[in-house]
Design goal:
Layout lengths: L1 H8 L6 E4 L6 H10 L4 E6 L2 H10 L5 E5 L5 H7 L5 E7 L4 H5 L25 H7 L2 H12 L4 H14 L5 H11 L13 H11 L2 H11 L4 E11 L2 H10 L6 E3 L9 H6 L7 E7 L2
Parallel strand pairs: 1-2, 1-4, 2-3, 4-5
Antiparallel strand pairs: 5-7, 6-7
Helix pairs in contact: 7-8, 7-10, 8-9, 11-12
The structure holds S-adenosylmethionine (SAM).
Length: 284
């Protein structure tokens, strides 16, 4: 949601802004253009491949890149010698590049391992989690983070399959999950394994914990009047943002209800259908 993000960030030439989720660099480029050559963007991503690509494709713009978790924004700012910033953007979740990379397990057709980590050097890959967790724990995780009503059936099917042989590839796992879900008529718009993949991705990357910590720490480095814009794709994430922005000592919430993508953006990028944007200004 580039138009809405830029409008709420209210950037001016010379300002300093953090893009906590570089991804494919679309938003970062717009932020760099808005602050101009006298300003600067600090672009963060957990994914080292996103950082490499950004550094290559956005060379020449006033951007500093950091491979880090956005919950560590204060440490990243310390490292580049910046005390406070004028704005922060978080566009959380998965990038199109990650989805398209068949070696990382984000796509249902990926023949690579079911990994699902944003930073492939940190934490436990999803295939290990699904081979290790007790079926009840797996079911709870799929239910909570995926809001999947067939979580128990899916967990039972996983437990039976891994008795025969350990789960490895993302494609085989997607088929296994799909086989546990009753056929629906008309068929759903999304792949039957979508919610389970989302749940596992949120778990292996500790996505809710990162967002919660970032929401607590960002105000310490945002100047009074500075803006925070968060775009999320999951109701649990949106709830964290909504709750944080309710703090009357810290935030002046600029979005009473979350903004959604305009039809033209949904037409061009169907995943933006579930995007929810909230914005707030830091109080003095
Ligand atoms: C939806 S994409 C961002 C797309 C980007 N705004 C663009 O214009 O292309 C989300 C990105 O955030 C990264 N990410 C997710 N959680 C993160 C975290 N806690 N810290 C840093 N990066 C994170 C992912 O690796 C992914 O590249």
């Amino acid at each position: 949601m580039p138009r809405e993000s830029l409008s709420f960030l209210a950037l001016e030439p010379g300002m300093t802004v953090v893009d906590g989720t570089l991804g494919g660099g679309g938003h970062t480029r717009l932020l760099a253009q808005a602050v101009g050559p006298t300003g600067r963007v600090i672009a963060i991503d957990r994914d080292p491949l996103a950082i490499d690509r950004g550094a290559r494709e956005l060379a020449g713009l006033p951007i500093r890149f950091a491979q880090a978790n956005f919950r560590d924004i204060p440490e990243v700012l310390d490292a580049v010698g910046v005390e406070t910033v004028d704005g922060v953007l978080l566009d959380v979740g998965l990038s199109s590049d990650q989805l398209a990379d068949r070696s990382r397990g984000f796509s249902f057709e990926a023949d690579g391992p079911l990994d699902l980590r944003f930073d492939p050097t940190e934490g436990e890959p999803a295939w290990r989690l699904v081979n290790r967790l007790r079926p009840e724990t797996l079911a709870d995780l799929i239910y909570e983070f995926g809001e999947e009503r067939y979580s128990r059936r899916i967990a039972r099917r996983i437990a039976a399959a891994r008795e025969r042989q350990p789960i490895e590839s993302a494609r085989d796992f997607a088929r296994l999950v799909a086989s546990a879900i009753p056929r629906q008529s008309p068929p759903p718009r999304i792949h039957p394994a979508t919610r389970t993949f989302q749940a596992l991705r949120i778990a292996v990357n500790e996505e809710l914990k990162s967002l919660q910590i970032a929401l607590e720490r960002i105000p310490t480095r945002l100047r009074p009047g500075g803006r925070l814009v968060v775009i999320s794709f999951h109701s649990l994430e949106d709830r964290l943002v909504k709750t944080a922005f309710r703090s009357p000592q810290t935030w002046d919430c600029l979005t009473r209800s979350p903004r959604e993508a305009q039809p033209d953006e949904v037409g061009a990028n169907s995943r933006s259908r579930s995007a929810r944007l909230r914005a707030a200004a830091r109080l003095a």
